[in-house]
Design a protein that fits this description.
By secondary structure, this protein is α/β, with parallel strands linked by helices. It has a single domain (about 10-190), classed as Peptidoglycan recognition protein-like (Lysozyme-like, 3-Layer(aba) Sandwich), CATH 3.40.80. About 20% of the residues lie in helices and about 20% in strands. The strands form four sheets. A six-stranded mixed β-sheet has the order 3-7-6-11-5-12. Strands 1-2 form a two-stranded antiparallel sheet. Helix 3 packs across helix 5 (about 180-190). The chain is globular, with a radius of gyration of 16 Å.
Length: about 200
Amino acid sequence: MNQWKIAPQPLAGGWLENARKVPSPNQDERPEGEISLLVIHCISLPPGEFGGRHIDRLFCNDLSPDAHPYFREISALKVSAHLLIDRLGGLTQYVPFQRRAWHAGISRFGERERCNDFSIGIELEGTETLPYTQVQYLRLAEVAATLIHHYPQLTPGRIVGHCDIAPGRKTDPGESFDWRLFHDLLSGLIRHPASDESRL
């Protein structure tokens, strides 16, 4: 049995207890109910700018095309992710984990297509070229540890970037994402005995 440095957070109805909840209409049932892949993305709206509620509005189909020239290209998209981790480590959840979010698009993992069917999508607020923050890596590792605890088909080896399942079409989370740091943090959480307090 895995030992944990943190106590994995309960998932009440598929929602993280300490995440801000902003339900997105862009979700539906998973065809087989399977959760066996975690996909890491990055997002910033407008590109390269952080903060504000533009990401919420995009995932809730409420992004004004007049608020920024770039938004005219994307305001009509019907997309979502399960979770956003902002630059300060704040968590915002848009879709309960047991339901399908619309984050991966045309995608393949191994021999399987349609990765949305069996994956969880997590967005990091950032860009592919700017370093992510230390607290984002900590939160991501903590969330991943919690998800691995709750969904046995999900393992550390089944955590990928969007670039890995949509090569040639997507490049996030980009060269700025430190995979070694992330996996070291995740391994540390799984291998150490649980403390009385969770950082989530």
